[in-house]
Amino acid sequence: MVEHHLVRTHRSEENLPREEQLAYRLALVAADPVEVDDDVADMVINRIIDNASVAVASFTRAPVVAARAQATSHPASSNGAGATIFGINQKTSPEWAAWANGVAVRELDYHDTFLAADYSHPGDNIPPILAVAQHTGRSGRDLLRAITTGYEIQVDLVKAICLHQHKIDHVAHLGPSAVAGIGTLLELDVETIFQSIGQALHTTTATRQSRKGEISTWKAHAPAFAGKMAVESADRAIRGQTSPTPIYEGEDGVIAWLLDGPDGRYEVPLPAAGEPKRAILDTYTKEHSAEYQAQALIDLARKLHAAHPEAADPEQVKSIVIHTSHHTHNVIGSGANDPQKYDPTASRETLDHSVPYIFTVALQDGSWHHVDSYTPERAGRADTVALWHKVTTLEDPEWTRRYHSLDISEKAFGGRVEITLTDGTVITDELAVADAHPLGARPFAREQYINKLRTLAAGQDGKRIVDEAEIDRFLAVVERLPELTAGELDQLNLVAAAGIIDPATAPKGLF
């Protein structure tokens, strides 16, 4: 059973009781000692594999190298065993492991997603929760329960509260969800979780400029920062430190000044006491390294590449119009009014948020690759630039309605493409969900998650990123997650093959 919690701004003199505050209700969900359903446990395992896959593919990328160097400058803190860092045999304190691993997971925009009133990458909950679990010697069962809480809280917040409408970055839902998961992991009392949620939210609200215009490397760091703040917020709350209250509903709080304002109202769906946490099953992962709203359009472009090769030739194309949702049009489409989305010299972070670019390359190549599709040479190819500048997006109210639908059978993230050739021929086709979506042509199951890991670990040009034996070891461990005992969670790490990571080449900083 789902209970809907009404959230609105309250004047200070109303003295909103703690028990009626959203942060407290989230804490109650986190503290509820429900067990994990078997299908949920299987999906948690899939997402741990998925996170490892995309982290492996980013081991040598500059943001990951820098974050890893920062983390390794900090030894494990004294009150625990420390936490592992993707790629290396070295531990650090849990907040820094959450930081380094969070950047590695997020860097390629290649892991799971949930889209509703707002959008999110719920897999970002895993690095901070796992880091604390390793540091404190928790079991696989503890980790399962904690990750399901992180997913539940983030998905429930994303269903109800829109952040991007007010230009607030989506990680404002991640800080509270990750620290709620940590609360479940450590079996903290409701009051302590309540205080940690308030601190995590307060420290992780920021503007969306990190995802606008010339998108920088901070895009990967933003969720890692939220995870790091979640760990630190839990630590402070455990030490008895309190948070701004009421953080959501106060007259100078988040709703009043960052979201819908004093008259704003939200209804947040939360599982009732004793109800299992199953929100992870509403989420979906990516087959392609690009913004999620581009997934179905990549698959559609691949189909059109085979069926209409003439559509890939700028000499034969007059225009390409993608009819899609408000969000796709205004965030990654031409409705964003970002000239950088049409700039062949733009950063990779910008290009993976440009559906005109993504659709053009997939249409011409009939494929998509997390490295090759973004190289400067690929982006700068003359025929690509010519076709790219003929691609625009338009909002279609029906695609917007389907995007926001809570009915999983009609919820859609794709669009309809209309290609007008110079001879007057019009080619139209549409796709609602990506092939890898649960309702798509080739839904991801355990086999596909494992294949994604093995494919990315194989690297390019014969240079393996992670040895096969290390992949086999990791998979053998993660697939028995519910049975892992205290101390075994350290094995949920992948170490790079010899010569892949060279700490001496890492950039120097203050630490």
What this model shows, in words?
This protein has helices at residues 22-31, 38-57, 62-72, 94-106, 126-136, 140-160, 174-186, 190-203, 218-238, 254-258, 295-307, 326-332, 348-351, 355-365, 376-379, 382-388, 397-404, 446-457, 468-478, and strands at residues 2-8, 83-84, 91-92, 114-115, 119-120, 265-271, 317-324, 391-395, 415-421, 426-431. It is α+β, with helices and mostly antiparallel strands and 511 residues long. The chain folds into 2 domains: 2-282, Orthogonal Bundle (2-methylcitrate dehydratase PrpD), CATH 1.10.4100.10; 292-431, 60s Ribosomal Protein L30, Chain: A. The protein has a 4-stranded mixed β-sheet. Helix 1 packs across helix 8 (190-203) and helix 5 (126-136) packs antiparallel against helix 6.
List key phrases describing it.
511 residues; 2-methylcitrate dehydratase PrpD; 60s Ribosomal Protein L30, Chain: A; 2 domains; two-stranded antiparallel sheet; 42% helix; globular; MmgE/PrpD_sf_1; MmgE_PrpD_N; MmgE/PrpD family protein; MmgE/PrpD_sf
